[in-house]
Amino acid sequence: MAQTRTSVALNLACEVTPSRVIAAHGSSSGVESASARSLSAGTIVPGLTGDNVLKPEELQNAVTEVLQTVGGHSKDVIVVVPDSVVRVVLLEFETLPMKEEEADGVIRFRLKKSLPFDVEKALLSYDVRRTPSAVKVVAAVAQQSVVDQYEAVFRAAGYEPGIVLPSSLAALGSVNADRPTLVLKVDAQTTTVTIVDQDQLLLFRTLEGGAKAVTGERIAEDVYPSLVFLQDNYGLSVERVLLAGVPSVAEIAPVLEQQTGAKVSDLVDSSLSPGTGVPRGELAGVVGALLS
């Protein structure tokens, strides 16, 4: 989802993960500087509902430190939150009202039964693509009180959240979606599987099980249903795989390449994050946010 609260181009991005806070200063051409700080276990417990930020003071200190380290004069920042905070849903309609207010109501009604909170009071952002045969919508929805917890930390640190994005949607900002591409983004608790093609999001799934449990075999098992879905519904096969958040892409790549028949590489190209001192796999969210 995206909450846009400023019309100024933003050159600061900060991602909050269950284990780290990562900040970057840059532009549409890439990252100029980046910084990261670890969080103690239980500082945040991401979820669609309930208390997410359990140690606000520690999180605020980490946010302050990394944003001050990367520099920049602006106090407006793109905030990237864990995927498990936001529900991303792909919807299809025969028709959808052209007026935004009416379309908003139709989309909320469709989402109503699939959420553990009141969708009428939720934050909702969506993208609409109209074709001759259908209207396709990518909707991102989150509980206001949960997003408020993250935003409050940034405001306490002296920054203003200009845009709020879930991690994997942010990361797609650095992906050239001109061919069938499988994007895998792993954090400490979840693995998110995304498939894009021709600048369209075809699949978005967030699975339990994060970086500590990652092996090539487990990821191959996780993505298999998505590969079947792509073939059955679109008649397509993945042509490349982009991976972020794992300890070693090189260790996981052989199994995935054998399963998909596609080359596996880092989600963040080295040209986008030269010499930041932060592992490229951890920069996917902030790099994509800056590029988008």
Folded structure, characterized:
With 292 residues, the chain is an alpha/beta fold. The protein has 2 domains: 1-175, Nucleotidyltransferase, domain 5, CATH 3.30.420.380; 176-266, ATPase, nucleotide binding domain (Nucleotidyltransferase, domain 5). The chain is 29% helix and 31% strand. Strands 3-2-1-4-8 form a 5-stranded mixed sheet, with helices on both faces. A 5-stranded mixed sheet has the order 11-10-9-12-13. Helix 5 packs parallel to helix 6.
What attributes characterize this protein structure?
single chain; about 290 residues; alpha/beta; Nucleotidyltransferase, domain 5; 2 domains; 5-stranded mixed sheet; about 30% helix; about 30% strand; globular
Text of the CATH class of the largest domain: Alpha Beta
Q: Based on DSSP secondary structure assignment, what is the total number of beta strands? A: 13
Question: Approximately how much helix is present in the residues?
Answer: 25-40%
Rg on CA atoms, Å: 18 Å
Which percent band covers the strand fraction?
Answer: 25-35%
Low-confidence stretches: none
The secondary structure category is alpha/beta
Which shape, going by the Cα principal axes?
globular
Instruction: Tell me the distance between the termini.
Output: 13 Å
Helix and strand pattern: EEEHEEHEEHEHEEEHEHEH
In round numbers, the mean pLDDT is: 91
Number of H/I helices: 7
CATH structural fold name of the largest domain:
Nucleotidyltransferase, domain 5
Strand order of the largest sheet: 3-2-1-4-8
User: For the report, how would you describe the main beta sheet?
Assistant: 5 strands, mixed
Write down the oligomeric state: single chain
- Architecture of the largest domain, CATH level 2? 2-Layer Sandwich
Count structural domains: 2
